[in-house]
Specification:
Elements (H helix, E strand, L loop, with lengths): L1 H11 L6 H13 L2 H17 E3 L6 E3 L4 H4 L4 E8 L2 H10 L4 E5 L17 H10 L6 E4 L5 H14 L5 E4 L15 H9 L5
Parallel strand pairs: 3-4, 3-5, 5-6
Antiparallel strand pairs: 1-2
Helix pairs in contact: 1-2
Length: about 200
């Protein structure tokens, strides 16, 4: 059945979807009513047509600025730099950040051949320079892996002349975690990032 194999193949391309899950999704589509399938197809067309990049931060937006950039109560002197829109969403769920964001859409990765000009680094630099000193702090919230660290170091060098405060998110022992289960790298970062109480 070529049609079924084709839809399973399409679902397999989704991040985190394995063969069994792709098959379950395909079976759901086969069993769904024609109205349900048409609704799914229309939703896919609509999201593809309407969702674009926010011109300020490169988060996803519908028609202009994203909701965060459009919110006048946000602190524009504080920019949090993340790799992906999903990272932005995770930070927003914590309800601990009142500034704005910049989404890079990737990380510098010499191994994978991703250079700084292939992500939204230039746009961040242009944004900070155009602020004429209004941006007081850039928080680098890239992932704590080799690519995230390379990106953080590169960004720090790039932004140093234009912003007085460049910080990196802390990482280490998670809340509720047991120290004896932590790897030595995580514990090392936790000790380096310790705070005074």
């Amino acid at each position: 059945m070529k049609a079924l194999e084709k839809i399973i193949g399409i679902f397999r391309r989704f991040p985190g979807v394995g063969p069994k899950q792709a098959e379950r999704f395909a079976m759901y589509v086969v069993k769904a009513s024609p109205g349900e399938v048409e609704s799914m197809v229309e939703a896919l067309r609509e999201v593809k047509a309407l969702v674009k990049y926010c011109p300020d931060c490169y988060n996803y937006a519908e028609g202009g600025l994203c909701p965060i950039c459009a919110d006048q109560s946000r602190d524009r002197s504080l920019i949090c730099v993340v790799e992906r829109p999903q990272d932005l969403a995770a930070i927003e769920k914590a309800k601990s950040f009142s500034g704005v964001y910049h989404v890079l859409h990737g990380a510098v990765s010499p191994v994978a051949g991703v250079s700084p000009d292939q992500i939204r680094m230039k746009e961040l630099l242009d944004r900070v320079r155009a602020s004429d000193g209004a941006v007081k702090e850039v928080i680098i919230a890239t992932n704590p892996d080799a690519d995230g660290e390379a990106t953080a170091m590169y960004l720090t060098r790039l932004l140093k002349p234009y912003v007085e405060g460049i910080t990196r998110i802390a990482y280490g022992v998670p809340l509720g975690g047991d120290i004896d289960y932590m790897d030595e790298v995580t514990l090392g970062y936790a000790l380096k990032g310790r705070i005074k109480i």
